[in-house]
Amino acid sequence: MKKMKIQIECPYCKAKAILRPASVVYGSTLKEKGRHLYLCTNWPACDAYVSAHKSSLLPMGTLANGDLRHKRIMAHRALSAFQRHGHMETWAVYLWLQMQLGLSREEAHIGRFSAEQCEQVIAACRQAMKLPRLLSA
Ligand SMILES: [Zn+2]
Q1: Are residues 46 and 13 in contact, defined by beta-carbon separation less than 8 angstroms?
Q2: pLDDT given at position 34
Q3: Domain end point (choices 30, 63, 96)
Q4: What is the DSSP letter of 50?
Q5: Residues sharing a CB contact under 8 Å with residue 9, sequence separation 6 or more, in sequence order
Q6: Predicted pLDDT at 137
Q7: Which of 81, 96, 103, 137 is the most exposed place for a label (fewest CB within 10 A)?
Q8: Domain count for the chain
């Protein structure tokens, strides 16, 4: 895929977000080597960024501030716990997620979710894990 530079706007302060090495935010750790993120040009005054895909450098979702990043991490954790609990394939988990939140396949990415949607994911996973394993019957 051709590497392209795309323009995105920070949803919080409306400034431009630009592609920067992840080390700008995380420091130079080995884990973040070669990684990039879209960072609000008002950073660190505005704490909004989103990771970029390693190969395409396209954003993994929408820019998020600290609160939203935390909620997305919690939603990911809830979803993996649900996946392990149900011994499900990743595609099946995302199909379930689409049905739970009434989303299309395109929309069902936690990186694009709002704080409210993340909370819905966490609640739906908690609820589902209380039920018997209907899917493995
Ligand atoms: Zn901003």
Answers
A1: yes
A2: 84
A3: 63
A4: E
A5: 15, 16, 17
A6: 45
A7: 137
A8: 2
